[in-house]
Amino acid sequence: MSVTPEPDQVEPPSPPGRTVRVLDLALRVAGGALAVFGGVLTAVVELVLAGVRVGGHLIGVSVLVVIVANIALGWFAHVTVGRRWAVVLPAVPWFAMMVVAAGRTDEGDVLLSGDNWVGLAMIVAGAMTFAVLGFRLMLAPPARTDT
């Protein structure tokens, strides 16, 4: 017959050492940097896919890519950084890329024109995806840290 210690007799775990904390911080910063890079990379890929046509008609494949990619980026940022606000890390560069793509260059070039339904749907879908992710993270109950 084993004797289990009383809850007040169990010693709390010792705090992690300095090396573990520094390594944890470095991994969180690296995860945040990867999330920012991922936001830029997926924005570029989505902008390239915005003009894909089959038989002369836009097919809108970038709208599906933006939803899947932004969900994955938001999840990755939240998990690697360990903070709820981390969903902003890929969202800000993604939005910045969309704003730049919607503007006209000095030569008159524009990546996302107003008459391109795919580009408009892509911007709306991407913005809504990040908004829903952020809202869900705000409403989520705090994570338990019991061991």
Feature tags:
single chain, 147 residues, mainly alpha, two-stranded antiparallel ribbon, 4 helices, 62% helix
Folded structure, characterized:
This protein is mostly helical and 147 residues long. It is 62% helix and 3% strand. The protein contains four helices and two strands, in the order αββααα. A two-stranded antiparallel sheet has the order 1-2. Helix 1 (18-49) packs parallel to helix 3. The longest helix has 32 residues, at 18-49. The protein is elongated. The two termini are 24 Å apart. The model has no long low-confidence stretch (mean pLDDT 86).
Structural class of the secondary structure composition? Answer: mainly alpha
Q: Using DSSP, what is the number of strands?
A: 2
Helix content: 55-70%
Widest beta sheet: strand line-up = 1-2
Question: From the alpha-carbon coordinates, what is the Rg to the nearest angstrom?
Answer: 22 Å
Anisotropy-based shape: elongated
**Would you list the SSEs in sequence order as H and E?**
HEEHHH
Q: How would a textbook summarize the main sheet?
A: 2 strands, antiparallel
Give the DSSP E fraction (strand runs of 2 or more residues): under 5%
Kindly report the average pLDDT value: 86
N- to C-terminal distance: 24 Å
Tally of alpha and pi helices: 4
What are the low-pLDDT stretches, counting only 5+ consecutive residues below 50?
none
Task: Give me the secondary-structure topology.
Layout: H1 18-49, E1 53-54, E2 57-58, H2 61-81, H3 88-102, H4 117-139
Antiparallel strand pairs: 1-2
Helix pairs in contact: 1-2, 1-3, 2-3, 2-4, 3-4
